[in-house]
Amino acid sequence: MIHINCDVGEGVDNEEILMPYINACNIACGGHAGDQETMHEVVALAKKYQVDIGAHPSYPDRENFGRISVDMAEAEFIKAIQKQIINLEEIVALHDAKITHIKPHGALYNDVAKSEEKAQLFLKAISEYKDKYKLYIPYNSVIEKLALKQNFEIYYEAFADRNYNDNLTLVSRKKNNAILTKIGEIVQHVSCIKNEEKVQTISNKKVTLKSNTFCVHSDTLNAIEIVQKIYTHFNTKKKGARTTFPNYKPYGNSGVLVTWESEMTSSVLNKVLEFKKKIIKFDIKVIVELIQSNNSLLMIYDELNVNFRTLQHLLERLFLLESDKIQTETRYCWEVPVCYDINFGIDLDEIAQKNKLSINEIIQLHTSPKYQIFSIGFLPGFLYLGGLDKRLHIDRKSTPRLEVKKGAVGIGGMQTGIYPKSSPGGWQILGNSPISFFDVNKQNPCFAKAGDFIKFVSISITEYYQISEAILNKNYELKSSVEW
Amino acid sequence: MVEILQSGLYTSVQDLGRFGYRNYGVPISGIMDEHHAKLANHLLGNNEKNAVLEITLQGPKLYFHETTQLVICGADLSPKLNKKPVKLNSLINIAKGDQLEFGVRKYGVRAYLAIKKGFQTTKVLKSRSFYDGVTQKSRVEEGDFIPYKATIKQILSNANIVVNKEMFQNNEIDVYKGPEFDFLSKKQQEQLQNDIFSIGLNNRMAYQLKETLENDFPSIITSAVLPGTIQLTPSGKLIILMKDCQTTGGYPRILQLGEASINRLSQKHTRDTIRFNMISIS
């Protein structure tokens, strides 16, 4: 694993895409960039993606983006630094989040790395945070020794996209070899520091450099590509590993298909529905439609604003996020009246004969289980139901009927279901329900949803017509009970 | 209102489709060849979401009750206004009492008739696209009236566009790997990439291909499918799903057409040939 941090809230506005790939962010808090609004936005995003939040104070110099040293009186400097941190602390508190670290910005970062006076002053300014926040600083710097002496908890930081001088200072941005932008070079540079604790300097020497976290500059032109590549390079599982579920596959140029184990069981369905709920709650704007079926979720995304890999990564990360606040939706059990009269149950005789059951046994077996709704598909309002008794499994008719009536309740193979409208079909028909499963005039065109249950209740032909009439007069309410 | 004097082979009102109801089993429906329908709307200065008439192979005979303008794009089905031939891809002024009819098919399968401000049939679940069981009709019938907003005056416009007919002849269909592509044998994968296929039975739900693949790949657990998905049935048949396709299916999804290829395929007729060109996802 690799720990990546980025400086954010500096006006580049790419945080939503960066966050899924990084572990920590350093938020500009008014010194060189950033205002109340950007801080709120970035803190909310960091919280959403469970990214560590750091304060990123600077010399108060927005004009030069904090990139040149500023001579300030001691008291004035301390006040300026504390003001920035307090500012962020207040906003973070409003989001019910917390700050984990402090990282000085730009010229201040460079100054405290080499000047004892500046380092002392900076540590004085942040001394009250000593026990609360970690300090991100470079290895073998002036501030490192002082901070360790004063019992600051430090986190070594190296730069993934910057070249180093032999004395471990960064090559000045004024020089054209200061910044690494080629992905291959960056990966090599990071690997070397990560694996050997050594950096290859611009004079081709290898100098010891320790690092707990790698910084990628979010304002580099290809910053997104850099973090994605570093992330995938260092966090990808070795090939040959067992397939894990769920797995993610592209489906067309704007679809991500997330698939679980190849089975139609409640436990798989629950995983699918739980993830679906999480995705909806998370409100990912680039997902335009979410289609659920028995063991999979298909997400249609806005391909102009996100690509498959970025979205896959975001989803993988989301999948792992703690989700104790997500409540499963209330699930209902709907009592669906079915008339098993021979006038409706046109295949009852055939089922009885083939499966060696009496018609009463068929009705009894069909009405005893609670069937779980796995998904809705095939026709508008057609419910895929799980839980049919094995003794009722029967092959589809060898020649499909040209028309099966609306409301027909049938069995096809191992499944039972209700035809929501008249259509051609090959299922064995054992009855008919007067209930409508699809109504375009209702806000939810189908009253039931995946995860709910259906229980069939046998009714007489008289009751069938009574219910039909009550439905016509809008005077009928389907019985349901809360399942959990 | 436009009055349908003759319905033609299969004429329906379509817009860009019905989104957000697939979890209830409602298909997307909508225009098959979006490229030409959008072109027609744009030439009129319409919003591309405006509903058009999708006309298949044999055109209808229409009687206009109010002044308007229209544009016909896509297949050339020899449109005639009051018995005189009119041009495709350019603005046609319609006066009260005008009659529009179609003649022989010269090229393509589906023509798109866009009308100023779009056809105004009732929206059902946020779309005007005809689909049996969602809208009242799946196609227009003789005697139907389809509403539109009359325009006050006729306009002079030279807006027209020369359409590249190469689009109708080109038989290359761009495809991505489908979710189950990797489960196919090497031989099946090569066949798909090298063979030429010809179109069998086809409609707004699906295009079947006449050639089959040797196949022992079983069905999958019912899962979502999309327009443009190519399914492989246990008997080796290839089925390309189109806009009216069901929302879920149990056959392996081996390939997926790119959007432009769905448009291109929508203009192919029975016995036309196609070949697949594999592309990768960006």
Q: How would you describe this structure to a colleague?
A:
- The complex is a heterodimer of chains A (484) and B (282).
- Chain A has 484 residues and is of the alpha/beta class.
- Helix content of chain A is 31%, strand content 23%.
- Chain A folds into three domains: 4-235, Glycoside hydrolase/deacetylase (TIM Barrel, Alpha-Beta Barrel), CATH 3.20.20.370; 247-320, Gyrase A, domain 2; 332-482, Cyclophilin-like (Cyclophilin).
- Chain A has helices at residues 15-18, 36-48, 74-94, 106-114, 116-125, 142-149, 183-196, 223-235, 266-282, 308-320, 348-355, 359-367, 461-472, and strands at residues 4-8, 24-28, 52-56, 99-102, 134-137, 154-159, 198-200, 206-208, 213-216, 247-250, 255-259, 287-293, 296-301, 332-339, 371-376, 383-386, 401-404, 408-412, 415-418, 423-425, 428-432, 453-459, 479-482.
- In chain A, the strands form six sheets. A seven-stranded parallel beta barrel of chain A has the order 1-2-3-4-5-6-9, surrounded by four helices. In chain A, strands 16-15-22-14-23 form a five-stranded mixed beta sheet. Chain A has a four-stranded antiparallel beta sheet with strand order 10-11-13-12, with helices on one face.
- The longest helix of chain A is centred in the N-terminal third of the chain and has 21 residues, at 74-94.
- Chain A is elongated, with a radius of gyration of 32 Å.
- With 282 residues, chain B is mainly β.
- Chain B has four helices and 20 strands.
- The radius of gyration of chain B is 20 Å and the shape is elongated.
- The A-B interface holds A 249-253, 255, 257, 259, 262-264, 288-296, 298, 307-308, 375-382, 384, 420-421, 438, 440, 444-446, 450 and B 19-27, 124-125, 133-134, 176-179, 220-224, 226, 228-229, 246-248, 253, 256-259, 281-282.
